[in-house]
Amino acid sequence: MTISRQALCATLLAATAFHAGMAILPASAQVSPAAFDLPTQDLATTLRALARQGGREILFAEEDVSGRRSPAVRGNFTVEQAVRLAIGGSGLIVEEQAGALVVRMPPQAGQDGGADTEITVTGTRIRGASAPSPVIMMTRRELEEQGVPDLTSVSRIIPQNYTGGQNPGVAGGGDQGGYNNINNSTTLNLRGLGSDATLTLINGHRLPYDAVNQGIDISTIPLAALDRIEVITDGASALYGSDAVGGVANIILRRDYDGLQASARVGASTEGGNVQQQYSGVGGARWAGGGFMAALDYSKATPIFADDRPYSRGLDPSQMIGTGSRQVSGVLTAHQDIGSWASFELDAQLADRRSRKANAFSVTAPATFYGQVSLPVVRSYAVTPSLHLRPGAGWEATLEMTDGASSTVSNARRYTNGVLRVGRSAYDNHLTNFEASAEGPITHLPGGDVRLAFGGGYRRFALDFNVRSISGGVTRVTRDAVERRGSLFGYGELSVPLVGTANNMPLIDALRLSAAVRYERYTGIDAVATPKLGLVYAPHPDVTLKYSWGRSFKIPTLDQVNRVREAVLLSADLFSPQPTPPLPAGSTVLLVGGGNPDLRAERATSSTLSIEFKPHFLAGLRIEASYFDIDYRGRIASPINDALSALADPAAAGFILRSPSARQLQDLIAEAPLGLSNQSGQDYDPAQVAAVIDSSLRNTAREHARGVDLAIDYSAELGRDSRLHLGASASYLDADRQPVANQAYQDRAGLIFTPPHFRARGSASWETPVVQLSTSLNYADGTLDNRYPITARLGAFTTLDLSGAFRPAVRHGPLSGLEFRLNVQNLLNEEPDPIRNSDPSSIPFDSINQSPIGRFVSFSVTKQW
User: Fold this and answer.
1) Is the full-model pTM beyond 0.85?
2) Measured between alpha carbons, how far is 309 from 270 in angstroms, rounded to an integer?
3) What's the pLDDT at 173?
4) In the chain, where are the structural domains located?
């Protein structure tokens, strides 16, 4: 969603009450004078104190108040009078919008500032309206204070996000439990529904898919370029289209920057491996009516080998349980007012990442004798110019175009008894998106303006794939094709404020209804219309109830349709438990899988009920609880939960071919472009193949996810130039899947390689102008390993993080603008629980839910000019 700078760079959500970037505190209807006694100090500190003491929301952009001082505020004033006294002759203005006091730079001469100062947040396209869906918000400043170095780490601290799928922590050559990460990318996976079921946006617009699994790789965005992240934990296809089944994440970049900042960070795991270097810089300038920001980031990490950790030393030392990588990424944003009626904005980004993965197929031979070494290279770019028009009467229109591509080339060196076979897989995604939208008031009710947002456009995306192998000096191209899709779409959203400030009454302080619908037609595939209804009701100024109901969808990704077929031969001894009767001694099993050209669109119905409590008697406290329910039909997934236990699983019987003929085996192997991957330890003999397991993707009948989210935040000024922030969030998830119609549901939460039932994070931060300290506690519930007749319980994974910063109180000289920061992640060195494997060369822990990084210590220096 495009957000005007005049709207304070799309103000932080009032629901989050976070202290970084902007100050947002609970609103109340208080207008009576209160006693204030604040000294001369930084303007930002004064505004935060006024908000907390006065119980009013005071919104401001950090860059607007940076470096400004406030005079002493002493006496009895209303909050608005106190704010006007604080900003004094700074040139700033204060206005009331949606019950909040907005402190901002004045509009340009002749500009209609009223409409532009209305707040727009992710979850609605209506300016000035609160979204009916819960929204999680994290600012760059808050992340930095908690020692988070990059967006890869952000995916691990959101309780509603599941780290299964595409994240660099997936071990075993990037494949475990059916999840893989071929190119070392990081994608969000809300509710554990899949990376491709969470829509990720940059400044409200789409990006090209990650080249292999077709999520959106957030690790290519430098943290220095970030303003904040807003996450909707609710289906939102009616607003944003396909993929928004589990929710939407909107990564909002800094619109501009004034000055230069450089930082360097080094760190390592105390148990060995994972030596990291990171160097980043951000610079820019502002001028009358415009500005720009450019950020550049370079990072490098060494791998973690099996012999670096005591619980994995049974593997061959060449086995990697953590990937090595090197990445360079950059972001450019700019904006310029053309006149009072129009402005231009530009977003651009590019990235280059190279990784190395080694997977040993034996515990007695290195990966370069019996195993695979993969060298993926990822290059991506995206450019989005947009034109923002203000025709008057409170309306704003936007025209934008995005062009981008993401390319992954993975060179795999596979060794069988020292004999090298080289495979090369190249995937290129390309996106072109044109969109026009408008928003504004259409009539006025006693509760406020009835507002309408509408728009439409065309999206074209393509996947080029080329797969080849080289053996004995002969190159064989096994797959070379291009598939393109086009989508026409249109949408509309209506917001109707029935009760507002002007006509509130006992038990109805506010009441707002909303409705949205989106229509999309995919050429040659499907046409889908998805509605969403919302209700925001405040029986009291301190209490807000929200309810949303809607439908979402996701079309099959081009990767899911065209995923390369594989044929892997395994020894029957690896399968446990054995079927009845057991497989003959010396027999083998052929495992086949891959994409499916007959896949259909997935559809879901979602509903969310939340309650928010912001008591006026304790300014700075916010409590929110939500219940969510997602009924996901036609889910695209493999019907085989665990291939090594599939032969004894009644639910998998329909996907197993027993005693296959030589002709059937020949046909199945011929469908695999890279031919047969013989990992059985014996020569291939069709007569010895006892069964074929088909794990190809299919539209499973149904998946159901429901649960509860809880968030608590408290911010307070402890004294002059000292503030405290406490936060806690938790998510409980219960999910199950019916692999095939008329079969029993199977658990999809609380089991090994699935999301845990319960995840939580708590944090505390204390700051003065010189010192900042924070601590965070992360908890992931234990899971049940039910792959064998005797089940085993894996313990919870709990980590404690510490971060501290020192900023010399020097205004001039080489020490001015410096920050020294020390971070310790997983202070107590929590280790993964060991798991049972029938294959001794398999990764001996659940890397989906438990990390091998261990205690990690880093030190960083940041300098501002």
Assistant:
1) no
2) 11
3) 66
4) 5-116, 135-565+596-639+697-864, 566-595+641-694
